[in-house]
Write a structure and sequence with these properties.
- There is one protein chain.
- A hairpin with an 8-residue loop joins β1 and β2 (80-81).
- α1 packs across α3 and α2 crosses α3.
- The protein has 3 domains: 21-94, Arc Repressor Mutant, subunit A, CATH 1.10.10.10; 101-143 and 243-365, 2-Layer Sandwich (Beta-Lactamase); 145-239, Enolase-like, domain 1, CATH 3.30.390.
- The longest helix is centred in the C-terminal third of the chain and has 23 residues, at 332-354.
- The two termini are 22 Å apart.
- The protein is α+β, with helices and mostly antiparallel strands.
- It is 45% helix and 17% strand.
- The chain has helices spanning 21-37, 43-50, 54-66, 83-94, 101-110, 118-133, 186-200, 205-219, 228-239, 261-273, 275-280, 332-354, 361-365; strands spanning 70-71, 80-81, 136-140, 149-156, 161-168, 173-179, 244-247, 289-293, 305-314, 317-327.
Length: 366
């Protein structure tokens, strides 16, 4: 659980800064103006909107700069938000925002069709997230260490072909087809299927992977040799790593931040290798929005970006994560309520398919 003085979006130990109403409003205006223009924000525009003198605005902005919430890139320039400024804005201003009914209805419609596999649900939610926010989005399926076997199905789809379907307790479905040089006896398929489920149901994927070959072959050494490839393919399914789906990366290429070759190179490296994205899903809180702004991650490639994730969990089992990659100058007011609502919708769909229960999902959507 988060403590009373911690961010609801990211683990933080320190107490949040207290700002008076004018400083709070001024910080919000600077961030939202900078989000829209990508240009340092000066005092003249803000003074007109707030109805106070430019001198007053400059003094207030200087005070926010001393607090570490704004910075001045050049002596004659206006101010831009710091990572700490964005953090205060996300925690203290955006925390209670929610989508308007029209946007909720739009997402409901996009997610209304039935999808059987959890991986496909995550993939579809990732695509929707990118379309609605115009940033890059990503989804990650569960790690095999978080999966246990619910059922193994062997389905004959021809004289020489067999489909192996592996169902995990968290809704993950893995499947493959093997081809034999000779016809596969139905009796062998039935016996082997029953045996696999008897021995392996409820076991962790990793434990099976480490022991399956000697464990299974010793007890079934009198079975037709064409069943042996099933063991190898089952092992491949068990060993396959978490999948990462990325969508909308091209949305980022038009942003001013990525005009710098160094920033672009870092972004493309994150997208192509996907290692940082996999690591990020191992941190943060399940069922909550987790916001990582710039240097708040341990990855140097991400210091110019903000990553927002929503982790899915049912019955204490990880079932996947969806996330957004954008500039620190992100439209948090739109993105955070959007990913939260899509994440809640995705959670409900997965729960219905798996029979899992988690309290207050409906209330969090409303």
């Amino acid at each position: 659980m988060l403590g009373a003085n911690q961010s609801i979006y990211f683990r933080r130990g320190e107490k949040p800064l207290k700002l008076d109403d004018r400083k709070k409003k001024l910080l919000e205006m600077v961030i939202e103006e900078y989000t829209a223009t990508a240009e340092p924000v000066g005092s003249f525009k803000l003074s007109k909107e707030l109805g106070v003198s430019s001198a007053t605005i400059r003094n207030e902005m200087a005070a926010l700069e001393k607090l570490g919430l704004l910075e001045q890139p050049h002596t004659s320039a206006g101010r831009v938000p710091t990572t700490e400024g964005y953090r205060w804005y996300v925690d203290q201003i955006i925390a209670e925002r929610s989508l308007v009914p029209k946007d909720k209805a739009s997402i409901d419609k996009l997610l209304e069709h039935d999808i059987n596999k959890v991986e496909n649900l995550i993939k579809e939610a990732t695509s929707i997230l990118s379309r609605l926010t115009n940033y890059a989005s990503y989804g990650v399926s569960p790690e095999i260490d978080d999966c246990t076997v619910e059922e193994i199905k062997l389905v004959k789809i021809g004289q020489n072909k067999l489909m192996i379907i592996l169902l995990a307790d968290n809704g993950l479905v893995k499947e493959t087809v093997i081809t034999s040089d000779i016809p596969i006896p139905d009796k062998n398929i039935e016996v082997f299927s029953n045996y696999l489920n008897y021995k392996l149901k409820g076991m962790n994927f990793r434990d099976i992977y480490d022991n399956i070959t000697p464990y299974i072959q010793v007890e079934l050494n009198n079975m037709n040799d064409n069943i042996v490839p099933v063991i190898a393919e089952l092992n491949n399914l068990l060993a396959s790593d978490a999948e990462v789906y990325v969508d909308g990366a091209s949305n980022m290429l038009s942003l001013p931040e990525l005009k710098k070759s160094d920033t672009l190179k870092k972004f493309l490296n994150v997208i192509e290798t996907k290692d940082a994205l996999k690591e990020l899903v191992k941190t943060g809180y399940d069922g909550n929005i987790n916001v990582y702004i710039g240097q708040e991650t341990s990855f140097d490639e991400l210091k110019d970006f903000t990553i927002i994730t929503y982790k899915q969990k049912i019955n204490d089992k990880e079932v996947g994560t969806i996330g957004i990659i954008g500039p620190k100058r992100m439209n948090y007011k739109k993105v955070i309520p959007t990913i939260k609502y899509i994440g809640d919708m995705l959670q409900e769909k997965i729960e219905k398919k798996r029979g899992g229960k988690r309290k207050n999902v409906k209330e969090r959507r409303e």
